[in-house]
Amino acid sequence: MKTLLLFNYDWDAKGFARLAAAHEKPWEKQFASRGFDLFSFPSNANLVFFDLDRFVNKLAKQAKSAGWTAVSSQHEQFGTLAAAMLAEKMGWPGTPAAAVVACQHKLYARQVLQQVCPEANVEFQRMPAAYGEPVPDGLNYPFFVKPVKAAFSVLAKTVQSQDELHQFTRFGAYELWVIKRLVEPFERIAKKLLPQAGTAHSMILEEPANSETALQYSLDGVAFQGNIKPLGVVDSVMYPGTQSFMRFDYPSKLSVHIQNRALDVATRFLTAIGYSHGLFNMEFFYDTVTDKLTVIEFNPRMASQFADLYLRVDGVDLYAMALELAHGRDPWLLPRTVPTAQASTSAVYRVFDSAQPLLQQTIPAMPDDAQLFDLKKHFPDHLLLTFPKTGGSTARDFKWLGSYRYGILHLGGQSDTDLKSRLDQASQLLGWPAPLAESYPTATFHIQATQTDSTLLSNRRLTA
Questions:
Q1: Distance between CA 297 and CA 209 in Å, rounded?
Q2: C-beta separation of 331 from 325 below 8 A
Q3: Distance from chain centroid for Cα 86
Q4: Distances from the Cα of 56 to the Cαs of 75, 213, 251, in angstroms?
Q5: How many whole angstroms separate alpha carbon 190 and alpha carbon 174?
Q6: Is the peptide bond before 185 cis (omega within 30 degrees of 0)?
Q7: How many alpha carbons fall within 13 Å on the CB side of residue 43?
Q8: 221-259 pLDDT, tens per residue?
Q9: Are residues 206 and 122 in contact, defined by beta-carbon separation less than 8 angstroms?
Q10: What is the pLDDT of residues 427-439, one digit of tens each?
Q11: Chain Cα centroid distance, residue 408
Q12: What is the pLDDT of residues 263-285, one digit of tens each?
């Protein structure tokens, strides 16, 4: 049996390659890969004419002769929906395509949440203006604004006034082209599967969380045969004074009681949209003062960046679980590996806009071969992703994300203290400032970050 992997890059390519290496058969005997790389040229030129229906129909015609018997994808923009559509067309196990659309259409997801879990929702509305149009009068600020269909969750920001919202939604011709080409393939499918949701070519305005008291978390879980079970909760640690992710730490420090509340919310929502099969991720806030839990969004896939954290601490391989789900097998029957750490982190290295006060930073250089050799020598368990960029791409990150993310480093430790010590030492080897809260002064920035940590049409390099 051969599994088809769609848009299999970065974390996912690493995860499935590790699975293949554990078996006797070579990778190409176990897996096939289709889809293009949105983060590199010329592969991403396929975006110009990409159509999900055409893509899926072509794969369906090839499936029998190619020997494919299942499909899997953790790719947010196109892969997850394409895999669901192909599974339905071929009669393979998979997530219902309409449920994927219901999660990814952020406005519709809010509407469903309001029906089944209003206590976990926020005030929201569609922005009453198309891309680039003047912002209407009469809106009550502040808002958290983001795309209805997130293009890698860029263009998400808290705005305090009509002028700020107007400036934030002014796009150049190239920016508008990229936004529309990323959303249009989804738009065509959503009109067929979920017409009541309305267009995805717009922004959504939401009540912002209290950044002083609301902390952010991610609940990961699995739906199998309609039963929804948790994998765990990951803590999101922000750069002081911002909503930009500094680290993702596992296991969570959130109380088990609140984690169970999050699971209850997820169960009600996923049941309502018919999400009966697949990995999922729910991002949420918990306000320690008001005791309010509010959903940020649902992702109909694993949070690929967190898979390595679960493997280190729990011995649970999310990629092996994804493979079992693709073939209709119970993922909870998989044996666990021996954990290698008691605590783990996905550390995010950033530079903020140098025009902001207190942040007159220069962009650190990418590590050279000698630095990478030393890193591997002293921290053989590390996983490193770097994001070298041109000046133009960096400037776009500052505008769309509020910062330039130049690297991500994964490490494990035997305690929180040990983990932070190892992170500090590894950062020194890279020549990068350690992403530890005590290393950065608290400041109030005019920028807010995206809700997930991917960037748009950029280069990257994965090393381990």
A1: 13
A2: yes
A3: 22
A4: 15, 45, 38
A5: 24
A6: no
A7: 13
A8: 999 999 999 999 999 999 887 778 999 999 999 999 999
A9: yes
A10: 999 999 999 976 6
A11: 14
A12: 999 999 999 999 999 999 999 99
Three-state SS string over the chain comes to: CEEEEECCCCHHHHHHHHHHHCCCCCHHHHEEEECCCCCCCCHHHHHHHCCHHHHHHHHHHHHHHHCEEEEECCCCCCHHHHHHHHHHHHCCCCCCHHHHHHHHCHHHHHHHHHHHCHHHCCCEEECCCCCCCCCCCCCCCCEEEEECCCCCCCCCEEECCHHHHHHHCCCCHHHHHHHHHHHHHHHHHHHHHCHHHCCCCCEEEECCCCCCCEEEEEEEEEEECCEEEEEEEEEEEECCCCCCEEEEEECCCCCHHHHHHHHHHHHHHHHHHCCCCEEEEEEEEEECCCCEEEEEEEECCCCHHHHHHHHHHHCCCHHHHHHHHHCCCCHHHCCCCCCCCCEEEEEEEEEECCCCCCCCCCCCCCCCHHHHHHHHHHCCCCEEEECCCCHHHHHHHHHHHCEEEEEEEEEEECCHHHHHHHHHHHHHHHCCCCCCHHHCCCCCCCCCCCCCCCCCCCCCEEEC
Residue whose structure tokens are 């002014």: 170
Q: Is 221:209 a contact under the CB 8 Å cutoff?
A: no
Instruction: Give just the sign of the alpha carbon dihedral 204, 210, 216, 220.
Output: negative
Strand partners, 250: 344
pTM of the model: 0.90
How many other CB atoms are found less than 10 A from the CB of residue 383?
A: 18
Q: Bridge-partner residues for 134, per DSSP?
A: none
CA 92 to centroid of chain Cα atoms: 25
Residue type, 316: V
Cα distance between residue 284 and residue 334, in whole Å: 28
State the Cα torsion 306-310-312-315 to the nearest 10°: -150
Instruction: Look up residue 255 and give its amino acid.
Output: S
- Label residue 421 exposed, middle or buried (CB < 10 Å: 0-12, 13-18, 19+): middle
Q: Per-residue pLDDT tens for 121-180?
A: 999 999 998 877 888 899 999 999 999 997 545 678 889 999 999 888 887 787 788 888
* Identity at 181, one-letter amino acid code: R
Integer Cα distance of 82 and 74 in angstroms: 10
Q: How far apart are CA 106 and CA 295, in angstroms?
A: 11
Tokens at 28, concatenated: 């190409």
- Closest by CA to 162, choosing from 146, 141, 145, 148, is 141
What does the block give as tokens for 9? 């890059």
Residue of 388, 406, 249, 229 whose CA lies nearest to 313: 249
The owner of tokens 């269909």 is 149
